[in-house]
């Protein structure tokens, strides 16, 4: 997909601090971490938003959650807890139109609406 920053990271055209990669998924640090641990889990396939998901994508989304769980364990934040967030569309403030799951933790987190 042209002009998609996350497709560009997946293609290794734009550098990123990559934490995980397999044939379907990549995870890398958020360029502006909002908390101590802030990693984005993305499908390699370009899907703009949760709104665009089809039934066939269910296993992919499940796998993204499992990668988040794995990375939380790897970063040592599982025991204290963390937050997983999908922003979807305008009202959520989604700015990158390529599905991404925010893994946020490593410190106490504020209210959901912060
Ligand atoms: P969202 O508001 O859910 O669309 O969040 C997009 C996130 O992507 C923000 O937290 C940005 O800091 C992050 N971001 C934007 N560009 C990059 C990039 N080149 N590498 C890593 N993270 C990025
Ligand atoms: Zn993309």
Number of domains: 1
Structural class: alpha+beta
CATH topology: HIT family, subunit A
Order of helices and strands: HEEEHEE
User: What is the helical fraction, as a range of percent?
Assistant: 10-25%
The main pleated sheet reads as: 5 strands, antiparallel
Task: Give a list of the ligands.
Answer: adenosine monophosphate, zinc ion
Choose one word for the global shape.
globular
Q: Count every beta strand, where a strand is a DSSP E run of 2 or more residues.
A: 5
User: What is the H level of CATH, i.e. the homologous superfamily?
Assistant: HIT-like
Task: Please give a structural write-up.
This protein is an alpha+beta fold and 114 residues long. It has a single domain, classed as HIT family, subunit A (2-Layer Sandwich), CATH 3.30.428.10. A five-stranded antiparallel beta sheet has the order 1-2-3-5-4, covered by helices on one side. A hairpin with a 3-residue loop joins strand 1 and strand 2. The longest helix is centred in the middle third of the chain and has 17 residues. The termini are far apart. The relative contact order is 0.22. The mean pLDDT is 96.
What topology does this entry show?
Layout: H1 5-10, E1 18-21, E2 25-29, E3 37-43, H2 58-74, E4 82-85, E5 101-105
Antiparallel strand pairs: 1-2, 2-3, 3-5, 4-5
Bound molecules: adenosine monophosphate (AMP) and zinc ion.
Salient structural properties:
114 residues, alpha+beta, HIT family, subunit A, 5-stranded antiparallel beta sheet, 20% helix, binds adenosine monophosphate, binds zinc ion
């Amino acid at each position: 997909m042209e002009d998609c920053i996350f497709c560009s990271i997946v293609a290794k055209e734009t550098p990123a601090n990559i934490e995980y990669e397999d044939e379907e998924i990549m995870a890398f640090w958020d360029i502006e971490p909002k908390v101590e641990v802030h990693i984005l889990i993305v499908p390699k396939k370009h899907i703009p938003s949760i709104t665009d998901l089809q039934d066939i994508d269910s296993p992919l989304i499940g796998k993204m959650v499992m990668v988040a769980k794995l990375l939380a364990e790897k970063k040592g934040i599982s025991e204290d807890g963390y937050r997983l967030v999908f922003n979807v569309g305008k009202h959520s403030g989604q700015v990158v139109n390529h599905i991404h799951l925010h893994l946020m933790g490593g410190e106490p987190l504020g209210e959901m609406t912060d």
